[in-house]
Amino acid sequence: MTDKSEQIGISSTYLRASTSSFTEFVRLIAPEALPGARLQAGQLGAQLPGGAGHLTAHATTIVALCYDGGVVMAGDRRATAGSMIAQNDIEKVFAADEYSVVGMAGAAGIGIELIGLFQLELEHYEKIEGAPLSLVGKANRLASMLRQNLGLAMQGLAVVPLFAGWDEAEHRGRIFSYDPVGGRYEERAYHSIGSGSVFAKSSLKKLYRAEFGADDAVMAAVQSLYDAAEDDSATGGPDQARQIYPVVWTADAEGVRRIGEDRIGQVVDEIVAARRARPDGPAAPVL
Amino acid sequence: MSMPFYVAPEQQMKDRADYARKGIARGRSVVVLHYADGILFVAENRSQALHKVSEIYDRIGFAAVGRYNEFENLRIAGIRHADFRGFSYDRRDVTGRALAGAYAQLLGTIFSSGAEKPYEVELIVAELGATAEDDQIYRLTYDGSVQDEKNFAVMGGSADAIAERVGEQYAQGLDLAAAVQLAVRALASDGDQPRQLGTDALEAAILDRTRTQPRKFRRLTADRLAGLLDSGADADSTPGPELVEAPEPVEAPEADPGNDATPGSSPQ
Fold first, then answer.
1. B133 or B5, which is more confident?
2. B256 vs chain A: nearest CA distance in angstroms?
3. Bridge-based pairing state of the strands B136-140 and B146-149
4. Which residues are part of the propeptide segment (chain A) (predicted)?
């Protein structure tokens, strides 16, 4: 196996390869550097009862919802290893590029690596072609990268991403969900992934309004994470003592933006204050 | 049986250098210079789609003259080099110096190997440092030699004349408008009479230190460029002789076997 440092110069492969994909290029020059390539090296893992899933921390709940003029994605900050909390300030939602965001649940180590590669993939394409991919093109690219990860998923190292962004052509925010084998599904208004997703999605189902503006959407997203944290042990609630709050990104016609800690702090304070009076959160009418 | 003629290595290298230089001399020039907030690239380029200037990485820009398909190959190789290095190590470990070194090695190998024709290109790799003192401009020629340029660099057909013009008027810490105007004046001064270069004949980009995003490279759109060219143009104290309309560039007067209609083979 060649050492990666040997490829740091420019060999003729760099001139000849006819692809705009970074992943495909790396497969030519250093296949062992790709996440999916560990399948061969990791065959042993498949023989472990229950797979290798326990070897990595797990990231949990991500929610995304469309609003009038954009899309918001939020994630809690907890990573777990079994019943232990592995990290209380992990970040699971990132800007994928200037117009899209991506979050992940599942095997944290693989997920963060996959997202890093995905970000690079989008940037690489944009630089080489001189224009960015369409939003659906980006979503499809993520699906194919996920498919390459199938071997690891089968060993218990499954990662499930959630992708959202501003569609320049259709002039609206769009959300795409995935399954561990690379199936890609477009969501209409809102979606959630991870172990707390059942609760978060139920919460959003009651709170969501199509006419939401950005502020309402951020509020609803944080409310739903709060609800997920109440019922799912792997989802962390906001930590007011340490000022560790959910990570929230929006994407609209202006591009992506991370909502500042101060702003999220205010949202969290509001929610916690309101829940003191009404612990189950805001009510929806029966009819 | 006929014996091949003996050609002295000196002669061979000279022939190859002449060949490459001739190719480069047919192309329009590019000026790269420091301005107050970063590095400016201005190229005379009548194509909106085929770029002579482009982004390589967060803080690294690329400019080229010569044969389009050759420098396009080099540009893509550079992006691959930078992205792979950033992927293997860290984004901060991608440097302009390493990229210039890699290009130099590649161009040098191609130039001195008898098997391939030399590349008819010249490149500039410019890196934005944390402060103005750390900025770097590397100029690479067809034979793989690298020069670390101070303040500005010019390459292409009339590089010497244009460089002289830039050198006369260059000052440290020019603002963007002044830098753009200087570069355009210099590019237009290559003939016997200064030509008029409009935004449709120019391609411009900056590496902007004030940009908050990690990617500092930004193209200057035609509107922005027009605004920069207009601003303070009246205050310019060097009116120069009457400007004449630029004629359409006459490409490659001599017969060039590779010069067919494809964009890849016309000198840029």
1. B133
2. 24
3. antiparallel
4. 1-59
Angle among Cα A217, A220, A226 to the nearest 5 degrees reads: 145
Give the CATH fold of the B30-231 domain: Glutamine Phosphoribosylpyrophosphate, subunit 1, domain 1 (3.60.20)
Residues 117-176 of A with CB under 8 A from B: 117, 120, 123-124, 127-128, 130
CB contact under 8 A, A7 and B80: no
Count of domains observed in chain A: 1
Using the predicted structure, report yes or no on whether residue A167 has a pLDDT greater than 70.
Answer: yes
CA B65 to chain centre: 5
**The CATH number of the domain where A230 resides is what?**
3.60.20.10
Over residues A184-203, mean pLDDT: 97
Measured CA distances, B137 to A40, B25, B95, B107, B163 (Å): 44, 21, 12, 18, 14
pLDDT of residue B264: 43
Give me the residue spans of the domains in chain B: 30-231
| pTM score of the predicted model | 0.88
- Apex CA A43: angle with CA A40 and CA A45, to 5°? 135
Q: How far apart are CA B61 and CA B84, in angstroms?
A: 17
Do the Cβ atoms of A15 and B74 come within 8 Å? yes
Tens digit of each residue's pLDDT (9 = 90 or more) over A66-77: 999 999 999 999
Counted residue by residue, chain B has a size of: 268
In this structure, is residue A27 part of a structural domain?
no
Segment B243-253 mean pLDDT: 45
For B125, the 3-state DSSP assignment is strand
Weakest-pLDDT range from A21-30, A41-50, B68-77: A41-50
Nearest chain A CA: its distance from B129 CA (Å): 21
**Interface predicted TM-score (ipTM):** 0.88
pLDDT tens-place string over residues A235-245: 999 999 999 99
